[in-house]
Amino acid sequence: MRDFRRENDGCVSAVFEPEEVEIVVQLATESGALARSAQEGAELRTDPALIRLLPDAYPDDPAASAEFRRFTTGGLAERKTLNAQLVVESLARPGDAEVEVRLDEAGATAWLRAITDIRLVLGARLGIVQDGDEGEIHDDETALMRAVFDWLAYVQDSLVLALSRE
């Protein structure tokens, strides 16, 4: 990936290699599908990643938490799905080439939110609860997942830095 940079028109852009595009598209698609499952009524308590995406507003009060979810889950899940979809669409490309992503402010915000959601899902799958946790890395697959988790932090940081430049 070539880091995000601020363009003269106020947009930000970065270039992603084909392998990076494949990884981000796959993870954004999965994250969007997970959010959509909540929107469609999936049981939130059965999947730790879904719990991380849509945490309890009142963890010590199940009744208040259920009432809050009744009014907010659909809209929140829909926004998370749309953010993930925007990431996938912005990486769409013909052939197997690198992709330049250009984002306006709204697109950049959607990307930041989608990357956060993807990292929440990966963190839940790895058993990462807070900063500094290494996660449960016990084979090549989880080691790769951890490497992607860290790389996405770099992508997110690059985007934030580009947005902060005037």
Oligomer: single chain
Count up the helices: 5
Strand content: 5-15%
Q: Order of strands in the sheet with the most strands?
A: 1-2-3
In percent, how helical is the residue content?
55-70%
Described by strand count, sense and barrel closure, the largest sheet is:
3 strands, antiparallel
Question: How many β-strand stretches?
Answer: 3
Q: Give Rg in angstroms.
A: 17 Å
Distance between the termini: 22 Å
Taking pLDDT < 50 over at least 5 consecutive residues as the criterion, the unreliable ranges are none
Structural class: mainly alpha
Q: What is the arithmetic mean of pLDDT? A: 92
- Domain unit count: 1
Shape: globular
H/E series = EEHHHEHH
What does this entry look like structurally?
By secondary structure, the chain is mainly α. It has one domain (2-164). It is 63% helix and 9% strand. It has 5 helices and 3 strands. A 3-stranded antiparallel beta sheet has the order 1-2-3. Strand 1 (2-6) and strand 2 (12-16) form a beta hairpin. Helix 1 (18-39) runs antiparallel to helix 3 and helix 4 packs antiparallel against helix 5. The protein starts with a strand and ends with a helix.
Give a quick precis of the structure.
The protein has 166 residues and is mainly α.
Which tags fit this structure?
single chain; 166 residues; mainly alpha; 3-stranded antiparallel β-sheet; 5 helices
Can you lay out the helices and strands and say which pair or pack?
Elements: E1 2-6, E2 12-16, H1 18-39, H2 48-53, H3 62-90, E3 99-103, H4 105-126, H5 140-164
Antiparallel strand pairs: 1-2, 2-3
Helix pairs in contact: 1-3, 1-4, 3-4, 4-5
